[in-house]
Every structure is written in C-alpha cells, then in structure tokens.
Design brief:
157 residues; mainly alpha; 51% helix
Amino acid sequence: MPSTMLARSPQALPVPVPGKAPQNLPMHQASYSRVAVSPPQAGSSVNSSAVPSLSSGSYAGSTAGESDSSNGAASGVDLVELMNDRLGSAVNPLPLDRSLARQAQTSGALNAKQQELLELQALAQRRLKGARANFADGMKAAKEVKRDLDWTQKRVS
C-alpha cells in the first residue's frame, strides 16, 4: 500500500498514512483522516491536549502560506470544546432523569413484591405442612375407628 506524506511545512515532520488510492475529493473532506503535528521545539511549552486545534498551523490541509479558514474550517476553534457544546445542548437530561427515577421506583416496587411473594410462599408451605399433618392424624383416627367398628361387629355377630 502506498503511503502519503502530507505536511510540507519545515517545522512539521511528515507522517505516513496508509490508505486507499487518492480520490478526487475536496481538501476539506479528504483531510479529516490526515493530521500532521510538529514536535515541540526546545524551550517551548508542550500542549497537553491530545487533539490539536485547527489554528495550530499543522492542520493536514495546510501548506505554507495557506490559511485554515480557506479550507472551510473556523480559525481558532477547538474541536473538542465545540463538540462538547453541541452535544451538551443537543441532549436534554430532564427526560432521562425522570425515566431513571421511574425505573428506580418500579425496581423498588418489584423488589418489594418479590419479597412479599417469597414470604407468602413460605407461609403457604408452612400451612401445607400443617394440613398434611392434620390429614395424616385424621387418617390415623379413621383407621382406628374402622378397626374398632370391625371388632365390635365381630363381637355382635
């Protein structure tokens, strides 16, 4: 795959970017995936930002003597700040907060009902155990009565 060297300013080192064969796209569309950043000079402060701003002069579409605004980009605009502002104004957190509160309430009610069902199930099992014991006692008493009746019938006959 051919690599393309994009930066032409004497301060920026070229960065090879592997990719497809060059297409005939306008520079402002093709340049989003190509960025060349010059290394910090000795004695200069290092920018700790991970994303360079468009006004840095090392914008991939820039060449010597070409300004960033000619490529359709606003001069001096920080892309991260711009995207944060746009996303912040695009998302309304109020419906999300309401649905989260409703979900928490529903979850609490569901957990309470689940606990109530477990308690009722345990109560039903205790009652069933008692009913079985009563039935066994009743069957035992019925057998004794039958045996007594049989013995009495033999004595009478």
